[in-house]
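User: structure tokens for this one?
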Amino acid sequence: MRGACAMFRAALRNIYSAARPGCTLAAGVTPQEAIAPMNPTGQALLVVKALIALLIAAAAPSAKAGCSVYEHRDFLGATLTIDDNQSLAHLGSLNDRVSSIVISPGCLMIAYADPQFSGAVTTFSAGRHATLPDGWDDQISSARCNCR
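Assistant:
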């Protein structure tokens, strides 16, 4: 709940500052204290805008791009995420145990059958791959996640 309050406070601070140029909302000021000087219509509008901003922020998917590999089909089991434009020369505990993959939009993953980016190679495009193509289930040992 603490995170939701912080998000609400930040959204309210941004809206309040935009509505009243030169004004800011200190971190210790409650929303009730911030809107008290406003007329009732202005208060209601400000609260509605803040709630809309909070809902949009809470519902928005994470902006962080990357490639996630999963131990089992259908995105189950242990997982490992390779951040955008990063590489893993060895998948550690998921070495030769990857059975599904999620690739963020704008990214692709180059998978290698052996550690250190060697052996057979295949590429996975953006999307959710609940199963892997023939010959790749439990065969990936290293990978690169390339994003635009």
